[in-house]
Every structure is written in structure tokens, then in C-alpha cells.
Amino acid sequence: GPDPFLAGIDFNIGVTSADPIVVDNNVAKLEASLDLRLRGSYYQPGLTGQIELEEGGELRVSENRYFIDRGVVNFLSESRIQPSFDIVGRTWNSTLPEAPAARSKPD
User: Fold this and answer.
1) Global pTM?
2) How many CA within 13 A on the CB side of residue 48?
3) From first to last of its 107 residues, what are the pLDDT tens digits of the chain?
4) How far apart are the C-alpha atoms of 67 and 11, rounded to whole Å?
5) Are 42 and 70 in contact (CB under 8 A)?
6) Cα 55 from Cα 102, distance rounded (Å)
7) What long-range pairs does 3-9 form, CB within 8 A, spacing at least 24?
């Protein structure tokens, strides 16, 4: 069963960043600001707060590159670590032919 000592641990730890943290790896190249709180127990930790991604960062997913216009990762559960992503970015596909520019006619 669970260790009684570990079962008695309750977290309430704030994690904030005075300056953006830098992430530079094979998945992301970006800066982010943190305002998080670790809650819950050793056996059932939770995370609340948010991570705000700085504009101009880059994410790499399935060999595609996405440039971040804005991004927030929210954590809402005091008993689970369950992120919710709200990210707006841009990408392009260099293997597709260039589409003609859209034009509209004045009324």
C-alpha cells in the first residue's frame, strides 16, 4: 500500500518566473512566463495556473514548424496535472503549389 509518510504530504508550492524561461530543444524554441501552483498530495498531485508563451517562439510537431502568435497553457485542477492548450500560430507547407492570391470585386 501507500507509504504513510508520503500519503501525509500535501503540496502548496508556488512557481513563478520573474523573467521568461527559455526552452530550446527538438520540440520547441521559445520563451515562456510561469505562474503556477503545485497542489494536492504526493500520490495525487495537481497543478493550477498558467504558462504564457511569448510571441515569436517556434514549435515542431510531426516535422512541421509552427510560429507562435500567442499561446497560453492553463492548468485548472488541484487534483490532476491536466494542461489545456490555447495556441495560435502560423505554418506553411513547402510541398504544395502556391495558391493564387484571393481577390474581391468592389460592389
Assistant:
1) 0.77
2) 11
3) 889 999 999 999 999 999 999 999 999 999 999 999 999 999 999 999 999 999 999 999 888 899 999 999 999 999 999 999 999 999 876 665 555 555 445 54
4) 35
5) no
6) 27
7) 6/42, 6/43, 7/41, 7/42, 7/43, 9/41, 9/42
